[in-house]
Amino acid sequence: MHRILACTLLALPLAASAQGLAQVYQDAKAYDAQYAAARFTLQAGLEKLPQGRALVLPTLNLSANATNTRIDSEPHNASVSSNFLRDTRAHGYTLSFSQPLYRKQNFIQYDQAGYLVKQAEAVFAQAGQDLIVRVAQAYFDVLASEDTLALVRAQKAAISEQLAQAKRNFEVGTATITDTHEAQARFDLAAAQEIASQNDLDAKKRALQQLTGKEYAALKPLRADVKLSPPEPSRMDDWVGLAEKQSYPVQIQELAAEIAQLEVRRNAAGHHPTLDLVASYGWSSQTGSQLTTAGSNLATGTFGVQLGLPLYAGGGISSREREAAAIFEKSRQDLENARRSAALATRQSYLAVINGVAQVGALQQALVSSQSALDSNKLGYEVGVRINIDVLNAQQQLFSTRRDLAVARYNTITNHLRLKSAAGSLREEDLELVNRALAP
Prior knowledge:
By secondary structure, this protein is of the alpha+beta class. 67% of the residues lie in helices and 14% in strands. Helix 5 (104-172) runs antiparallel to helix 10 (388-422) and helix 8 runs antiparallel to helix 9. The longest helix has 69 residues, at 104-172.
């Protein structure tokens, strides 16, 4: 029995251990399919640089051949030549070399490859920021649902006590049946809210599980004494300026505009001549031919430069040039739209944080007032100056204020992360700071 008890006590901390936000984020980083897809997209994007470099480096090709030919000749005039049957074999190889000396299109495409790599890195960085926000949102959604369920159950228990008291007062004749009916109605409503809250909590847990691939027994809650501070820097315009310059959507569109501008130059270079350094070496051997039975070995080598000049391509080069120019103008408008969208998202997140901090302060004061109002109504009900519905309403107000306070705190923290993401400055260290605000 002692051994069984000891094993049970050792297992209790493991079963009751709660996971923090940092650990949940690491689980999501290793499991989330959207982030994994972004990682492989980055790997594919990094290959653009060696592909672009290959356009300006030399190429070396080797080709070989081996043939067996059967010649059966029957001349129409036997006095000129006689019939003959001959089998000949030939084999050989050719080694060719080419080095671009002047191919403006290739050099511009090499420059494009560098911008494509930077764009892929920016897209992946944005995916990392999105993962942080998505994990924090899912984590605090679960905490908010747990708080709501706990408050509904606490409210249900308080209404149950009020219902029992109303029944006792009715039995002794100090209250009417109306008090009992009102308390019973509130109790039934609380029971329905408990079912809805439990269903919402299960849904939020499934959403978090989709990110991490794990089902957590418990999550670390936010400390009750945590202080929420306004964003730093304190001016909205400073955040907007950062977003318009360094947010990843803006960076991605800036790089897209640079790539489009180079594409215009690349298509215009289609009118330019090309110059390549070429060389080749070939060797062949044959046992005979249609004309002779004598075999031979042949070795050839060439070295020189090759000039190409496009004269007329049916107007295709000029058409592609006009197409690239239109795409470049589109990319400029996309860039302007990205800047405006980043500024709007930053302003919205900034105001959400500022208003959230103020709302938390107001709700904290409202919570104190609601508790005092409930105590006063309970005392008034006992002495007969308040009725049962007053107590029930005071209880409802108290629990609603507690729920609103918890949700406001979670939303303020999440909006702070969104603000940093809109400005392009959200890092894993910011998530670690939030994790420190959780209860141990």
